[in-house]
Target: Flavin-dependent thymidylate synthase
Amino acid sequence: MTDDPVDDLKPSFRSDVTVELVKHSAADSDVLWAARVSTAGEQSLDELKKDPERSKGLINYLMRDRHGSPFEHNSMTFFISAPIFVFREFMRHRVGWSYNEESGRYRELQPVFYVPAESRKLVQEGRPGKYRFVEGTRAQQELVGRAMEDAYVHAYEAYQEMLAAGVAREVARSVLPVGLFSSMYATCNARSLMHFLGLRTQHELAQVPSFPQREIEMVGERMEALWAELMPLTHAAFNTNGRIAP
Ligand SMILES: Cc1cc2nc3c(=O)[nH]c(=O)nc-3n(C[C@H](O)[C@H](O)[C@H](O)COP(=O)(O)OP(=O)(O)OC[C@H]3O[C@@H](n4cnc5c(N)ncnc54)[C@H](O)[C@@H]3O)c2cc1C
Model:
């Protein structure tokens, strides 16, 4: 975006997503004190720093045997900017998630649109639910870039034309495509994030493979990297136990 209002109305094209951790209260120790209340009662907080190896073992045991609730006593809030089609998939995750998204009724939507990077595989093979993606040809890549940009520009012009004629934002937005970028805050805990990652990322350690759309996976990979820094033992146990949320 620029400071010039005219430039702000010119469509711009992005092939990446934004994921920022804006707020958090999340550490491996949150899992430990919650779990140890079972046996240590109100002393469970004092037990935290006693024996790191035992702590690692306890987290691994909870993950392996799917004792999930100790992984809920933490919170992470992410700011995410991604195409609307990613948010449609994202908001299917109902449990342990809170969302707030920018409004197309209360503000004029900015012309930022998704165009896949060259590295994004374009051609699907195999059967539904188990697609494999392969590189597109040069011609397919050029077509995708050109067709998307033309359609986006055309759609945004129609949106602007209606706004200029006094039509309400909530009506005019109907012409905007799902490749338009939106932004939201999403808050979760480690348990709900693990469930999300199990479904929305592909990983060699996954015991139950999933086949997510690449663009939501891009968001998931960034969230995972930020979470792994906050809760390294929990993250390692998630991987060791087949990336199945407890
Ligand atoms: C690769 C892939 C392809 C998909 N394709 C489609 C598609 O074609 N069409 C489509 O509509 N969706 C599709 N989805 C979305 C999918 O069906 C889920 O809605 C989404 O993955 C969220 O999963 P969830 O319900 O487990 O998560 P959450 O809503 O976060 O729920 C977490 C867990 O809570 C429990 N739970 C939540 N709500 C209920 C309930 N009402 N009753 C009982 N238990 C509940 C379940 O154990 C659930 O796993 C797809 C998802 C993936 C990953």
About this structure: Residues 13-114+183-240 form a domain with the Gyrase A; domain 2 fold (CATH 3.30.1360.170). Residues 159 and 172 are 5 Å apart (CA to CA).
